[in-house]
Amino acid sequence: MKTILPFLMLLFCGLSFSQTTITGSVVDDNSQPIPGANIIIVGTSTGTVTDFDGNFSLTTNLNPPFSLQASSVGFETISETITTNNQKIDFILIEGTSLDEVVISASRTPERIFESPVTVERFGLKEIKNTASADFYGGLENLKGVDINTNSLTFKSINTRGFATFANTRFMQLVDGMDNSAPALNFPLGNLLGMVETDVQSVELLPGASSALYGANAFNGILFMTSKNPFNHQGIRTYIKQGITSQEAAGNNTYTDMGISASYKFSDKFAAKVNFGYLRGTDWYATNYDDKDTPGGTRGSNINYDGVNVYGDNVTTNIRDAAPDRIKGIIPDVNVSRTGYREEDLTDYSAENIKADLGLYFRPWENDFEIQYIGKVGTGSTIYQGAQRYRIDGFSLQQHKIEVKNNNFFVRGYITSDKAGDTYVMDVAGPNLLQAWKSHPDWFGDYIETYAGEVLDGSTDDQAHVAARIAAEDGRPELGSDRFQQLFDQVTSDTDFLTGSAFKDNSKIYHADANYNFGDTFDFAEIQVGGSFRTYRLNSFGTIYADANGPITYSELGIYTQLQRSIELNENLKLKLTGSLRYDKSELFDGFFSPRISAGLTVNENHNFRASFQTGFRNPDTQSLYIGLQTALGTLIGGATDIGDRYSRDYNISQFAQNNLGQPSSKSQTGAAAYTNSLFASIANGLGTHDSASDGSNFIANSSYANPEQVSSFEFGYRGKVSDFIIDASAYYSIYNDFLANESVVAPLYGDVSNFNLTGYDPNNPASVAGLNGDTQQILAALNNRDIVVYQTYTNTEETVKSYGAAIEVSTKVFNGFDLSANYTWARLDFDVAGNPDFRTNFNTPEHKFKTSFGKTELFKNFGFNLAWRWSDNYFWEASFGDGEVPAFHVLDAQVNFRIPSLKTTFKAGATNLLGDEYFTAFGTGFIGSQYYLSLTINNL
Fold it and tell me: Are 779 and 761 in contact (CB under 8 A)?
């Protein structure tokens, strides 16, 4: 009791009854007020921010003298001594450069971006206010080295240094320390569960491998978004944007984007905030009707047409093989596809995002010790392109975090969960809608019978095919009819992909991490230690993962340490050394060490040279391990060693094999067949030629089960000021081992691949088959009769994959205060694609990118503008949905703004893709049109 009483007195009693009040203002060297500047009592966490007019008032229990510090992004920090109560003090901040900005992500400790040991990009309040993009998230596209692949109006995928599809599992996104990847998908859905714009404090982006500090998923880069703390930012802030999207295919459509943030400091011990955001518009229509198989082909010119954004026409059959014997002789040996549905027939393209969050902040001792609760929820409708085109409808995510922290440590734990809502897969809905109306055998039967009748009546081949399709399509429900809607609702609510297209999910991620900085303990160096623990619980009810028999659960953990020391060599040279080491262990794989070392040399305070060697690793993500998803292109099957115990399907056997090979009418096959009894998919197209002396072992696939991939990266960089120019340049060289990607294979439903031997086989001599062993004969028969299952496996290549690149940015002020910046990024893949035709790296990155911006925050009193132009080289996109060329494109964004300080209000008029040249960033997506908007922002300092 004697021990507890002093503690309770310290917790609940006031420490002092006297109060000191300081008032003042913060302006720049042109006497312009600086809103949102941070005012803090040095050595404490007591502080405030300036209002829209640059004024502040601060009350504290401390008695003078003490030091008061003023700081703002883009300005030099200064301090003044407070000597009396009710003192008024006016700070004049001198404009600094981007090199003076402070970042945390590079080393998990605050440091000037100028001295960061690795490449880091920052997007602060000034950049957010001045971005010409429609929102702050889109504005990140103008950072050097950054790619944003636009999936839809509300879903943009950020990446750096290549190797990414929209399912970007190599790039991590942290919001207030929480990984906001969707558990079902294992990657973030853009800003769906991100931040309301009025609550954003800063955004930092760390390109390249960051596993040494941030773990397995920080393989290609990491994005940090930090929100405003209600102890420092109080009041109500709101914005509304109203405008139109304009696209040739969709026309002009209105969109609304609005948000509100309310925060209040109830006392020096307790503060709270709440945020709400809403966006609604019309998505970019995907109208690529090019034939996947025949360049330039259309439904009118190709009876086996398969359009990119047409779903259901992938259902195809050889009509001679399907014809009854009585008419087989007059039926041509050709493939015919069903008439599919265009994507616009299967979605209304509405785009919506609703998100809200609540934050409760408690400082029991009125110092830097803080306890936080943050709860976030987001829901929306959008389009996602993975292996297929998904209509994300009512998909929801939520996160709940509790964190305890001060200036030296943090301990946090959070849970992330998702629900699929009414989401369905459009290119699965198409074939199953056709099947629900008229079965595939019946449709092709009508087609074949009509074709035969037309030929017997004297019609030409072309005329017979036209008549056959008309007859087979007779009775098809019209779009918008009650019958069509009934079938559509039936298929999009059915979770069996053989008859429906809906997917369910209620997966969860449980995560905890901690970090302690011993910077105040040891003088010779700053030492940090930390660790993390994560548990995955996959629960898609068998619609995405191989979890039809119950949820899949597994865990991973990691620990790390970092040592950083600054050495002043002389008055003109300062050396900063950083070393990090992390150990991670998944229950599914062996443990792995990730070291990082870096050195930064500052010369004459204006030049910093840096070099680093860092390693990274990535455990296979949840889909790479446990996906079990049937698609039009085959079954995506995870590479976990127990996938065979979790995934099994029954498949029909051809009539030929039943009659001549003694095979049953159906067989079961587990997902393990893709890894233990498979051939490369290229053999499924037939063996037109074969050297009879070859045993054919080069056709055997048997993909290896998935293992962690590794990267070693060397980086060199320079940051500095040369005359009036700020220069930031970097170059990297990365070597990937055990690179994880997809491999296309086929698994025969009969025949043992381990005995496959083609020695003596001549495709031009059918009799040569008799000399092959029984298993090889059966496998060739299975290939010929299509008694095979096509898989895309997740496996590691034995080949080394390399990439390298460089980026440079130059910024300055011209014409008496105009901001001008330009950056260039170069990236190359070094991989033998021709020697590995069945292996897909998904590099998906242009070799050359150029971006520039020009503007002024104060063109004349209270009026500013900004122009941003970017150009991308052409590149080849490869992904599970499809492969294709992405042409070069250029985009101009622009905005003008006008501020009314007395009303704390900013008006902005802006446009993205102002020139109207529509483009796309990935094969299969909609063309990106233009956005025009007017916005009103109130009190967003």
Answer: no
